[in-house]
Design brief:
The complex is a heterodimer of chains A (about 300) and B (about 260). With about 300 residues, chain A is an alpha/beta fold. Helices cover about 30% and strands about 20% of the residues of chain A. Chain B is of the alpha/beta class. Chain B folds into 3 domains: about 90 residues, Translation factors (Elongation Factor Tu (Ef-tu), domain 3, Beta Barrel); about 110 residues, Rossmann fold (3-Layer(aba) Sandwich); about 40 residues, Dihydroorotate dehydrogenase, electron transfer subunit (Dihydroorotate dehydrogenase B (pyrk subunit), domain 3, Ribbon), CATH 2.10.240. In chain B, the strands form 3 sheets. In chain B, strands 10-9-8-7-11-12-15 form a 7-stranded mixed β-sheet, with helices on both faces. In chain B, strands 1-2-5-4-3-6 form a 6-stranded antiparallel β-barrel. The chains are: A alpha/beta (about 300), B alpha/beta (about 260).
Chain lengths: ~300, ~260
């Protein structure tokens, strides 16, 4: 049994496997199917200062080895989260991390500050990369200045571990990573979805209500892996890798490319117990290769 | 209700129509409790075009034989793969999902179950459960032609069956909402499942007749657990997940005013 624990800033994870925001609800939806405390962290649904209804249906389209979504951050707002959801999840024995989104730096900061007050939420993942909202979201994540402005505003009011989730829809993701590192981010996670599109040729209409959506699933994995590798070389803070991870082999690739931890997203829809299997698979691989700790493989690719 | 992820064994695949198969699944342990109107998310192996699980409604649960029946329309690559399954093969099932239809409280209740196409599937289990409690359901089943009417003999075991076909080849000619039954009788509640235009027509009838009505929606979905928020329907309570808050909704909750 190899050691699987890792650290992201001050945040200790019992193993490097987490579930990605928007794919695992608040964890509770999966409680019948797998032990929630068996993974390193659960990143809950994107939360905003004010409630959001999200985009119109249809919000999802299946594509080759993946899917597009344009959910658009449907959530009941941070106050509802604090009052009604937090009490239900606070005693789950793993890192419960809240994904925070907003439409202005002040919005992000206010939302983050309210979550800062919750004792059992040790970290947030700042979503500056949602491709499905008009106001804010990805607009901040595609320029260094935009990304810096949000991280700066949040850092002033949020005192625990701050992970910033980056968009792949940029020319140079390493530059954005360096910009948020300079403003005090403790970690970056990448990638959010790749902006995409699909058309029903019989109806001559797009398959999504707002025409475009974010592509996820195994289709994006090689792109995500390349970006994780580039960013890990560009920054000193730990990198959390995600994008199409479906099995332990995929996860180990991200760790080797320089990720300290990984997130599993779309694969939760295919197998709701996949995160536990990935954890066990990483452990088996390490044992088979005589590794004492997962640390031995993180960033081994130059 | 507790959810399970099970590798069920294909007992038999019955081809009941050129496009439909009845898949009977079993397990070496007793199958979990399932309610009429709930559904199963199935993983389709060996079909590269089928990335996500497929939601299939529960057609029937035979507790004596420990069988779960799924009525599948082979319309796409994934469902065609399902239709080709052989006895003994395993099918990975996430179940039971969703809420289910409201069951009658007393056996005097007059319940009408209206189905069209493959949408008749969940009404069989609903009718069978009603019949078991001594409440005889009336089924109103519609299809394009006589040969597209599915499992009629099985439905007849559990209640009165009225039929419409669009070409008049069996039962009354027209759509389900044209059937004379709706003019002649009053019901306490209607449960319906089928193509959306049909369910909207049934909902219109129910509103005019001032009859309680539940519809089973089949919005495109991914997770089946209420996590991804892809399958939402606009309701009086905002966007709700068809997979978790449905698939069954009272029409008063829906914004179907047309």
């Amino acid at each position: 049994m190899a050691r699987l624990d890792v650290k992201i800033g001050n945040l200790s994870l019992k193993n490097p496997v987490m579930t990605a925001s928007g794919t695992f609800g608040y964890g509770l939806e999966f409680a019948d199917l797998m032990p929630l405390d068996g993974i390193g962290g659960i990143i809950v649904k994107g939360t905003t200062l004010n409630p959001r209804e999200g985009n119109d249906y249809p919000r999802m389209a299946e594509t080759a080895s993946g899917m597009l979504n344009c959910v658009g951050l449907q959530n009941k707002g941070v106050d509802y989260f604090c009052e009604h959801i937090y009490p239900q999840i606070k005693d789950i024995d793993t890192n419960m991390i809240v994904n925070v989104s907003g439409s202005s730096p002040d919005d992000y900061a206010e939302c983050a500050a309210r979550i800062d007050a919750l004792e059992k939420i040790p970290a947030i993942e700042l979503n500056i990369s949602c491709p499905n909202v008009k106001d804010g979201g990805m607009a901040f994540g595609v320029t260094c200045a935009g990304a810096s402005s949000v991280v700066k505003a949040v850092r002033e009011r949020y005192h625990k571990t701050l992970i910033v989730k980056l968009s792949p829809n940029v020319t140079n993701i390493a530059e954005i990573a360096r910009a948020v590192e300079a403003e005090g981010a403790d970690s970056v996670s990448l990638i959010n979805t790749l902006m995409g599109m699909a058309i029903d040729i019989e109806k001559r209409k797009t398959l999504l209500s707002i025409n475009t959506g974010g592509l996820s699933g195994p289709a994006v994995k090689p792109v995500a892996l390349r970006m994780v590798w580039q960013v890990a070389k560009a920054v000193k803070i730990p990198v959390v890798g995600l994008g199409g991870i479906c099995c332990a082999k995929d996860a180990i690739e991200f760790l080797m490319a320089g990720a300290t931890a990984i997130e599993i997203g779309t694969a939760n829809f295919l197998d709701p117990t996949v995160s536990i299997k990935v954890r066990d698979g990483i452990n088996d691989w390490l044992d088979r290769h005589g590794c004492q700790s997962v640390q031995e493989i993180i960033g081994v690719i130059d | 209700m507790k959810k399970y992820l099970l590798d069920l064994t294909v007992q038999r695949v019955e081809r009941i129509h050129e496009r439909y198969v009845l898949i009977k699944l079993t397990d070496n342990k007793p199958l979990p409790e399932m309610l009429p109107g709930q559904f199963v998310e199935i993983r389709v192996d060996g079909s590269p075009a089928t990335f996500l699980r497929r939601p299939i409604s529960i057609n029937f649960v035979d507790t004596k034989a420990n069988e779960l029946w799924l009525l599948v329309a082979a319309v796409g690559d994934g469902t065609r793969k399902l239709a080709q399954m052989q006895a003994g093969e395993k099918l990975n099932c996430l179940l039971p999902l969703g809420n289910g239809f409201t069951m009658p409280q007393k056996k005097e209740e007059r319940i009408l179950l209206v189905g069209g196409g493959v949408g008749v599937a969940p009404l069989l289990y609903m009718g069978a459960q009603m019949s078991q409690m001594g409440c005889e359901p009336t089924f109103l089943l519609g299809a394009r032609t006589a040969k597209d009417l599915l499992m009629l003999d099985t439905f007849r075991k559990y209640g009165r069956v009225c039929v419409t076909t669009e070409d008049g080849s069996e039962g009354e000619k027209g759509f389900v909402t044209n059937h004379s039954l709706l003019q002649e009788e009053q019901f306490d509640r209607i449960a319906t499942c089928g193509p959306t235009p049909m369910m909207k027509a049934v909902a219109r009838y129910a509103r005019q007749a001032n009859t309680e009505c539940e519809v089973s929606l089949e919005n495109l979905m991914a997770c089946g657990l209420g996590a991804c928020l892809c399958c939402v329907e606009k309701t009086t309570e905002g966007n709700l997940c068809v997979c978790k808050d449905g698939p069954v909704f009272n029409i008063r909750k829906l914004l179907w005013q047309d």
